[in-house]
Known about the structure:
The protein is mainly beta. It has helices at about 10-15, 75-80, 175-190; strands at about 25, 30-40, 50, 55-60, 65-75, 85-95, 105-110, 130, 140-145, 145-150, 155-165, 170, 195-200, 210, 225-230, 235, 240-245, 245, 250-255, 260-265, 275-280, 290, 295, 305-310, 320-325, 330-340, 345-355. The strands form 7 sheets. It has a 6-stranded antiparallel beta sheet, with no helix packed on it. Strands 2-5-4-14-6-15 form a 6-stranded antiparallel barrel. Strand 4 and strand 5 (about 65-75) form a beta hairpin.
Amino acid sequence: MLPSRTPRAPIAAALTLLLAAGADLAAQTTVTIPCAADNTLYEDVAGSVSNGKGSGIFVGVNGIGMKLRTVLRFDVAAALPANASIVSARLTVQSTQSQYTPSLAVTGHRLLQDWGEGNSIAPAGGGFGGSSSPGDATWIHTFYPGSFWTNAGGDFAPASFTISMPRLGVAQSSATPDAVADVQFWLDNPAQNFGWLLKTNEAVVGAARRLASRESATGTKPTLTVQYVVPGQTGVWGTGCPTVFGTHTFQYVGGMIGGNTIQLLHTNAPPNSVGINYFALELFQPGGLLQPSCNLYLPATQSWIPGLVFLTDGAGTGSSFWPVPAIYPDLYFVTQSAVLDNSALGLALSNAGVGKIL
């Protein structure tokens, strides 16, 4: 069974400098979910304009100073198994028109009220909205004409992610634990899946972006890419630290089934050395940068559970065998390993492995 929780070892305690860094994920299951509903909230005190069925959705501030916010929703519960644990969640959108050349920071916020997509279609380019139709979300309405936001412009939580939006082209949201938490919440509580609101800091007039909507006949429609594991599955996140062989790579070999024994395999690790596997109950993404190309993926807010010690051979390969505990069904956990080396950090971390016990 898993060892009792203990304070982090001295080596582990030194690995708490957490700065954002990119990472690539190769989880066992990936699904791309199409947008189920989208609309634009145009800043209008009467709520008289919307664009429920238009080919564009808008975010930013247009040329006359009108604030524009996108709302969009994805049917997570219909696309994922109910017992899935989300590893990564990223939103993809495409900017199809803008007069503002610099990259624009767009933040995504979990919405706190349900909202609608009526039959309104904004004329011309759509940047000023069209007449609201019954069921439309507007600046003041959740469903035009009789249901309202508590706060004009939408009711939403703090930002879950940021998209660096080019003037034109496809962009994807950053990998964050908050985006994962949002999607996991929607999976576990489908009746409270109200989607995300996209907005900017709204300080720059004329910086609005027109994005392809789900009704667009061209371009990339909004999609949500989710990577997850279900009981019995494993996956990986991120990349390991550089070594003489490349990068320190960790993976589980075998099904994550309670009562069975699974292999913890290391390749391209520092040769002829000693390492230890650490377990945690959460994944920190995108990762905390400790030195160039070397990230910590275990959360600094948790006590890590020291696991099996292993040795590496002259080729940088190490292996240990772990009896998967049978008393923790549905447990989702993360493993990252550290092997002693002669780098400035004094060790080489692996990528993270994720698993859920069947």
